[in-house]
């Protein structure tokens, strides 16, 4: 066995082994607006469904639905924030600021809207979040298109 | 590299520590899988599903309908939680020995 080990190490000196990554942070390089868009749409849908609930009837099923909808809204607003932060911190680089001078503000406003959607139940705010995410999606597409040229 | 009959690899990164440490040299082979498919618990070298040139060292955590869930021993790595289930064709070979 030792002979085999010596033989293989000698072989490595002539022809180095391939690297195999057991890495903690391999950048996958996959950046997409879709998860943030879906999360923002879910928030809007939950707001719509909560608004449609009949609060005159506070029976158990209605209360149960209400709690579940609020939970889902909360979770997806958080998910949306996380997905946006990944794009902001990992995909966009300082050179993108030349293309999009309002880049930081767009992300700041969008992530703040995630929090605002957690705090309240307002269709207008939910729509604003969807619009903000769509705007960032456009920036992402434009930046990717430029990188491919 | 589609399959490796007998390949030499050097570990980069810590997601499989302490079983596999950075700099350790491994022999990987697809031969064991000629006589039976990969099994849960096997340590395998696989091609990243979205980055074909990137080879990863992971452990098979689950198998369903010929799709494999691969996870690092340390749950802070990039694995099936990030890139989803993998096909058998992505598996380059099974860990056989260190040298």
Automatic annotation (TrEMBL), chain A:
<dbReference type="GO" id="GO:0004784">
    <property type="term" value="F:superoxide dismutase activity"/>
</dbReference>
<dbReference type="GO" id="GO:0016151">
    <property type="term" value="F:nickel cation binding"/>
</dbReference>
<protein>
    <submittedName>
        <fullName>Superoxide dismutase, Ni</fullName>
    </submittedName>
</protein>
<dbReference type="InterPro" id="IPR014123">
    <property type="entry name" value="Superoxide_dismutase_Ni-type"/>
</dbReference>
<dbReference type="InterPro" id="IPR036502">
    <property type="entry name" value="NiSOD_sf"/>
</dbReference>
<dbReference type="Pfam" id="PF09055">
    <property type="entry name" value="Sod_Ni"/>
</dbReference>
